[in-house]
């Protein structure tokens, strides 16, 4: 039986770079380079086919903006995967899309390709917020796409952002209620992080007066938790909410420390005991693969001690927390004994709770970084 993995495919192309974005993505790339990139993805897959016996349980096509490329590339890639690997029946297959590059025609093609989950980068339905973020879609376009997504896809995710310049609790509430009215089975709510190297980072001084306070940002977060719950969209991870049985199986693999292989520039893998990442530069990626080498940039062996820490930190991201029986069996430890000091300290501050599971409290979710620190 093959080793079960999740497959992540990075498509690093976008129509236009958003002003807060620190993902590896390139705008206005010539068609030739896009074609070469997709050829390299196939070559990278061949390496795994020739060296390992794997069964693909989930496929996640992320970016960048996968919907920005000609769907013929996606079609060739998916056909290649199905004809070269064992793929689980009804394999959860996600494609990320943005409103400006998605249309009904593409949705129909994706459906024919066994893509059964769509993840749409809506971020906000307020035109001022969208403009400041440098997003190129309008709220009108986003609404049209939400309507199409709900019509064509049983399973779709809507990405929303909080903590945006000019955003306030009213504007977020309006966005949230409108999104809920489309009945999404899955919603992700991410806080804006101003990362080094982005336009927002360099313009922080002129932006900071327009950012909501931390308190306001937290209110938006808890409003999302509450309102989504009212509509049966339950929080199952710090930033993720889903109707029952619509949780993202692919992302759960990350939080459960299961194996996944990332292909494409800047993709990350956890496979055969190693965490590794590919080079970010697409030309370097293409050349390396063309010359018969994997385009690995960083690689680290994860020993048991390291794995245990990752298992705790990632597991705490899930609302149900960590099943202590599973943890103790997997790492052959007495959790309460080994982490007595950390647990007592975190409990004293009301950041964690323990029964059969070890999990964050509401307060712990707001201060999750402090909890992670205890296990690093
Ligand atoms: S669409 Fe997404 S990946 Fe592309 S530039 Fe904007 S935030 Fe970055």
TrEMBL record:
Q: Name one GO molecular function term.
A: 4 iron, 4 sulfur cluster binding
Q: Which InterPro entries match?
A: Coproporphyrinogen-III_oxidase, Elp3/MiaA/NifB-like_rSAM, HemN_C, HemW-like, rSAM, rSAM_horseshoe, rSAM_sf
Family designation: Belongs to the anaerobic coproporphyrinogen-III oxidase family. HemW subfamily.
RNA-binding among keywords: no
Supply the Pfam families for this chain.
HemN_C (PF06969), Radical_SAM (PF04055)
Protein purpose: Probably acts as a heme chaperone, transferring heme to an unknown acceptor. Binds one molecule of heme per monomer, possibly covalently. Binds 1 [4Fe-4S] cluster. The cluster is coordinated with 3 cysteines and an exchangeable S-adenosyl-L-methionine.
Q: Which GO terms describe its biological process?
A: porphyrin-containing compound biosynthetic process
Where, per UniProt, does this protein localize?
Cytoplasm
- Give a yes or no for keyword Cytoplasm in this entry: yes
Where does it sit, as one GO cellular component term? cytoplasm
| Name of the featured protein | Heme chaperone HemW
Q: Which UniProt keywords apply?
A: 4Fe-4S, Chaperone, Cytoplasm, Heme, Iron, Iron-sulfur, Metal-binding, S-adenosyl-L-methionine
Residues covered by the Radical SAM core domain: 1-234
């Amino acid at each position: 039986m093959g080793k079960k993995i999740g497959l992540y495919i990075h498509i690093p192309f976008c129509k236009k770079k958003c002003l807060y974005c620190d993902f590896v993505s390139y705008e206005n790339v010539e068609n030739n380079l896009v074609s070469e990139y997709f050829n390299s993805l196939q070559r990278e897959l061949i390496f795994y086919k020739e060296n390992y016996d794997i069964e693909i349980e989930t496929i996640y096509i992320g970016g960048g903006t996968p919907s920005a490329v000609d769907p013929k590339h996606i079609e060739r890639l998916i056909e290649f995967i199905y004809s070269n690997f064992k793929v689980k029946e009804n394999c959860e297959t996600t494609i990320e899309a943005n409103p400006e590059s998605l249309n009904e025609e593409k949705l129909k093609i994706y459906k024919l390709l066994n893509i059964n989950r769509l993840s749409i980068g809506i971020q906000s339905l307020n035109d001022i917020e969208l403009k400041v973020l440098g997003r190129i879609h309008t709220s009108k376009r986003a609404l049209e796409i939400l309507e199409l997504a709900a019509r064509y896809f049983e399973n779709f995710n809507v990405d929303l952002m909080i903590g945006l310049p000019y955003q306030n609790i009213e504007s977020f509430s309006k966005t949230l209620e409108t999104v809920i009215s489309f009945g999404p089975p899955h919603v992700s709510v991410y806080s804006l992080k101003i990362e080094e190297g982005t336009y927002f980072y360099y313009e922080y001084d002129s932006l900071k007066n327009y950012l909501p306070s931390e308190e306001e940002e937290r209110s938006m977060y808890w409003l999302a938790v509450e309102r989504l719950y009212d509509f049966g969209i339950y929080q199952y991870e710090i930033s993720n909410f889903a109707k029952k049985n619509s949780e993202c199986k692919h992302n759960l693999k990350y939080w459960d420390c299961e194996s996944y292989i990332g292909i494409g520039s800047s993709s990350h893998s956890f496979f055969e005991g190693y965490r590794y990442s590919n080079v970010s530069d697409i030309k370097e990626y293409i050349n390396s693969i063309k010359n018969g080498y994997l385009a690995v940039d960083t690689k680290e062996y994860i020993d048991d001690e390291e794995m245990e820490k990752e298992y705790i930190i990632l597991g705490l991201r899930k609302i149900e927390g960590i099943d202590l029986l599973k943890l103790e069996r997997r790492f052959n430890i007495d959790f309460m004994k080994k982490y007595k000091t950390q647990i007592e300290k975190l409990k004293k501050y009301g950041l964690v709770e323990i029964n059969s599971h070890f999990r964050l409290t509401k307060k712990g979710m707001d201060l999750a970084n402090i909890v992670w620190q205890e296990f690093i």
